[in-house]
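Researcher: I need the complex structure. Ligand is zinc ion. Inputs:
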Amino acid sequence: MPSSPEPSAKKTWCPTCGKLLEPDVVLCTRCGRHLATGHRGRTLVEAREGDHVAVAWIAAAAAAVGAGVAWGLLAVYAGAPLRYGACAVGLAAAAGVLLAARRRNPRLPFVAFTCTVAGLMIGKLIAVVWIVPPFALEQAQDQRRMYETLVWEMQADKRIDEKTAGTLVDDEASIDDSETGRKVKRAEAMIQERLGAMSADERRQLQLRIARAIRDRTSLLERARLLLSPWDVAWFLAAIALAGLLPRLHRR
Ligand SMILES: [Zn+2]
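Model: Output:
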């Protein structure tokens, strides 16, 4: 036989969401508020959604950073900014979100967007730090620079002494004794011969070494200024648009 309800037990309203609750209820079933303590726990549905989004964060971050690093390294290898590669970063972030999140969630585009921005920054930083800028490659083709570089490299290899090397690169140098004069003449002939006998590939390698040295002497800010263009902004925006739009295509 059911006991009659206590006279004090009557329905109440949840102070957080206003849901009408049965007597003696301790937890609001709509918003998760604990009626006595006021603490609001996550509902099971929210907890699951949170897990989906957390997995999407991890997948998108890994995909976007991986794509950003690959893009940066490819640009360094190619010696060109490969600006369109920005879209690959956006696509990777969106793909990470789409594959990892089990269903649609309004936070997914934000996840893809944020990870894309991070991936783009990493890729660009790699390119700016290590790419050999075209201006350096152009300067490296200068015959005089190639000659001087060979002189300093031969001195570093201890094939010629410091005084000879210094005299070789100094146009105004006067040779005071015949011993030094003979050494300088010998070394100069050797270097001119080496320059003349270089294969196209050896010549490119030498120019690349010179260009890298020029790059390293140029400040990072200056390199960034020379490498970044309005096209970077355009491709960045395209990548971000892809990352923001694709997660909306989630079928569930
Ligand atoms: Zn409630």
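Model: Summary of the prediction. The chain has a mean pLDDT of 88.
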